[in-house]
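Input chain follows. Return structure tokens only.
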Amino acid sequence: MSESEYIHKSHNVSVLLYHFVCPAKYRRVVFSRAVDQTLKNVCIEIEKRYEVHFLEIGTDKDHVHFLIQSIPRMSPTQIITMLKSITAKEIFKKHPEVKSKLWGGEFWTDGYFVNTVSKFGDETSISKYVRDQGLEKDYTVLHKSKQLALF
């Protein structure tokens, strides 16, 4: 599967896509062709054991972009925690030189960036789609936030 697909479970159908950006610890340049290949292979193995699908993986010397599809039962935090843990262990095991670049510490920074991605368009087009679904076009907006809020 190279593109997102609807995932059918017993009580739901979903197409949940997440874009994660994960920097290496201290923003060190630790990615090389060999490390990239290991990362890719580990992610392919993760797909076989967990309900995540990697639509795209890209490295940029000191950080990685993951485009991942998953199911509603797995939160973004669960996905990234599992992903960072497994990939770090395997990269350190296969590439001890990386561990020395990171002073024997952790592979990933504690933080990450996550964004939801829509297969069907941006926020405006989805809002229009929702409004246009009614049989008599009787859609009423009960609330619309003007700005994203920080929690």
